[in-house]
C-alpha cells in the first residue's frame, strides 16, 4: 500500500530544507547558430534532500515524500535521495556579443520562436525600442522557456512563485529584461483542442506571472524589467508571507 502524500501544511515544514541547483552551458566557439558563444542554456531546480532514515519516524516521513505528486523526479546518489520539486529552464542572450538573435533562436526548438517580438524592429543592442529602457540595468535578455512544479506543492500560497523569484536572483543578475511565454504546458497534447479549458488554464498561468511583476508585451510574450521594482516587491511580499517556514 502506497503511503499518502503529506498535506499542504505538512509540506511547508520542508520549505527551509529546499536547495537551489543550477546547471548551464555555453560554447567556447560557434560551429553553428545553435551554439553561439553569446548564448547560455541553463536549467535550475529546487531540490529537497531526504534525511538518512535513522529511526521509524524519519523513515515514515521519507516514504510519504516519495508518494506520487510530491516531486517531479527522484534521484539517488552516494549522499542519499533527493526530490526535484520545481524545475525551470531557459536561455540567456548576451546582447553585446550575440551574432544574430533571430538566427540563434530559430536554430532551437519551436518554443523559442515565441520570443522573436522582443527583437523585432530592433533598437539599441538588438532589443525592441519599447524595451530599451531596461538596458540601464544590464545587457542580457533572460528567456524562461519552461517552469514546472510538482502537483502537491501547488496551491500553497505561492511556493512556486517564491522559488522562481529566488532562482531569478541568480539567473537574471545582469539582465536588462526577463521574458516568458505563459502557457499551461501540463495540458496533454490530445486535449489542447478543448479551447475553453486551454483558455481557463492559460489565464491561471498568466495571473501567476503577473503576480511576479511580469506584464504582457506582444503576442503572448510577457516581460519583467529588473530595473523596475514590481518584481522585487512581489518576491519580498512572498518572503514575508512564508517567514515562519523559512
Short description:
With 246 residues, the protein is α+β, with helices and mostly antiparallel strands. The chain contains 6 helices and 8 strands; from the N terminus they run H-E-E-H-E-E-H-E-H-E-H-E-E-H.
Task: Count helical runs.
Answer: 6
The best one-word shape is globular
Mean pLDDT, to the nearest integer, reads 89
Briefly note the structural class of the backbone: alpha+beta
Helices and strands, in order, run as HEEHEEHEHEHEEH
User: Could you list the spans in which at least 5 consecutive residues all have pLDDT below 50?
Assistant: none
Number of strands: 8
Query: What is the percent of helical residues?
Result: 25-40%
Task: Quote the beta fraction.
Answer: 25-35%
Global Rg: 19 Å
Q: Main beta sheet: strand number and arrangement?
A: 8 strands, mixed
N/C terminus separation = 33 Å
Task: Give a structural overview.
It is a single chain. The protein is 25% helix and 25% strand. Strands 1, 2, 3, 4, 5, 6, 7 and 8 form an eight-stranded mixed sheet that branches. It has helices at residues 8-12, 56-65, 101-106, 159-171, 195-210, 230-241, and strands at residues 19-25, 39-49, 73-77, 80-94, 140-149, 175-180, 215-218, 221-224. Helix 4 crosses helix 6. It is globular and about 60 Å long. The chain contains six helices and eight strands. With 246 residues, it is of the alpha+beta class.
